[in-house]
Amino acid sequence: MLDFETILLFITASSLLALAPGPDNLFVLTQSMTQNSKAGIFITLGLCSGLVFHTTAVALGVAAIFQTSVTAFNILKFIGAAYLLYLAYMSFKSNSKSNIEKQNITLSPLKLYKRGIIMNITNPKVSIFFLAFLPQFTNHEGGSITLQIFVLGAIFMLCALVVFSSIALLAGLIGNWFKNSPKAEPILNKIAGTVFAGLAVKLALSER
Asked: Which domain CATH number covers 164?
């Protein structure tokens, strides 16, 4: 199995990667600010659950398909980009306090959780990243490589959960401060919409 030094190094690297600005933590940030910390936490749980898909893909070799097949890569990334554009549209549409409250009522914890999962699994670059990242910390003398990949994937999920949850809590507090100002609410939604649209374009234009 994995030795302590390898696990410690992996935790450090994973935490730093989770902190680096990227689609997932920006997604948690904007959703927490426009809704609340609780929404961000459920989205975080969804994002981390989505990592199970990518970890399994690497362990079973499926991620190699996304790396070698242009069609498979493009289909998944365009689905993700379309979903992000939908979220951008909904954010631009919510420009009043009544709309925000209506959205909060509509989005149950389960829907927020599903939103996080969809956001994560429709980004094929995560599978390709895991394919390049996780094997670096495996040891052929430590037993089953497949088992080691799953262990590393689980550790990465825990690191992401801690980092993203912290972002959600902080962003939720900032969002509550903004919501006290009626003029700030439309601006906050426009910022979120712009971020989602930007992420959609970035994902759509991404290459393997």
From this structure: 1.20.1250
Helix (H, G, I), strand (E, B) or coil at 2: coil
Contact (Cβ atoms closer than 8 angstroms) between residue 26 and residue 195: yes
Contact 70, 208 (CB under 8 A): yes
- Asked whether residue 76 is assigned to any structural domain, the reply reads yes
pLDDT tens digits for range 53-88: 999 988 888 767 766 778 877 887 788 788 878 878
178 contacts: CB under 8 Å, gap ≥ 6: 33, 184, 185, 187, 188
Token readout for 144 is: 């089953």
In a domain, 168, yes or no: yes
Other Cβ atoms within 10 Å of 155 Cβ, number: 17
Residue 136 CB partners (closer than 8 Å, separation 6+): none
Exposed (0-12), middle (13-18) or buried (19+): which is 179, by Cβ within 10 Å? middle
| Mean pLDDT calculated for residue range 99-115 | 69
Roughly how many angstroms between the first and final C-alpha of the chain, as a whole number? 31
- Could you give the CA distance from residue 195 to residue 84 in angstroms, rounded to a whole number? 9
Do the Cβ atoms of 143 and 1 come closer than 8 Å? yes
| Number of domains the chain contains | 1
Q: How many CB atoms lie within 10 A of CB 15?
A: 16
Q: Residue 104's pLDDT band (boundaries 50, 70, 90)? A: very low
Alpha-carbon distance 181 to 37, whole Å? 18
